[in-house]
Design brief:
The chain is mostly beta strands. Helix content is 9%, strand content 51%. It contains one helix and 18 strands. The strands form three sheets. It has an eight-stranded antiparallel beta barrel with strand order 1-2-3-4-5-16-17-18. Strands 6, 7, 8, 11 and 14 form a five-stranded mixed β-sheet that branches. It has a four-stranded antiparallel β-sheet with strand order 10-9-12-13, with no helix packed on it. The two termini are 44 Å apart.
């Protein structure tokens, strides 16, 4: 029993030391992209922020260190940014759902905008693209699986509206797209080989053999 207790304490202390070695904020410091990415470690969590020419990227999650490897487990994060929209509704007598959409960038109508009906897992059940003057019209007869209504255009913030707002109504939706400034990192796990980790430097190599040099921010 005593030996088991000592082993537990040693393992706990080892884990604590590993996290302490990689605590704080590290700034990417190589080439023309120096200063564009920061990794911040606190406890067993991390935050990943990148600044680009057009848009930024953001992610956070948990990390662990094992056999000279660093594993970054990105959590699923909801994108808090959205384009703006206005909805007007009226009752529909025949229990169908009618949705008219018109999309704009400022005052300019946008053609090629995707309007989609999605299920509870966010999979597309049906989708259509806006045509002349950014307009799209949908009639939904069977809506049992539909949970979300989305409006998308590449490079702009998505509009997400619960489908319950439209069910068995006649609705007009006017969307004003806003450029997407921050991209949310998708959930995944990234593994890096740790070449060096101390109070000043963090050198990592990814699965493709690319080396990343980070310097700790004072």
């Amino acid at each position: 029993m005593l030996n088991r207790y000592m082993l537990t304490v040693i393992l706990f202390l080892t884990t604590g030391i590993s996290f302490a070695q990689i605590k704080g904020t590290y700034v990417y410091s190589a080439g023309v992209d120096a200063g564009t990415r920061t990794l911040t470690f606190n406890g067993s969590g991390f935050r990943d922020q990148s600044t680009g020419h057009v848009s930024d990227k953001y992610g956070e999650g948990s990390f662990r260190m094992d056999n000279d490897h660093l594993y970054l487990n990105y959590f699923k994060l909801e994108d808090k940014d959205s384009s703006t929209y206005k909805i007007t509704t009226s009752e529909e007598l025949y229990e169908y759902t009618y949705i008219f959409v018109q999309a704009f960038d400022g005052k300019t109508p946008m053609n090629g905008v995707q309007v989609a009906l999605r299920d509870g897992e966010f999979n597309i059940v049906f989708a259509a693209d806006s045509m002349s003057e950014g307009k799209t019209s949908l009639r939904v007869d069977k809506a049992e699986k539909i949970q979300y209504f989305t409006v998308d255009f590449i490079g702009y913030n998505r509009v997400i509206i619960p489908f319950s707002r439209f069910r068995q109504k006649r609705s007009d939706v006017f969307v004003d797209f806003k450029p997407q400034r921050t991209m949310i990192e998708p959930p995944r796990t990234e593994a890096y080989k740790m070449v060096k980790s101390d109070h000043n430097n963090l050198i990592l190599i990814n699965s493709e053999g690319i080396k990343f040099l980070f310097i700790k921010r004072k």
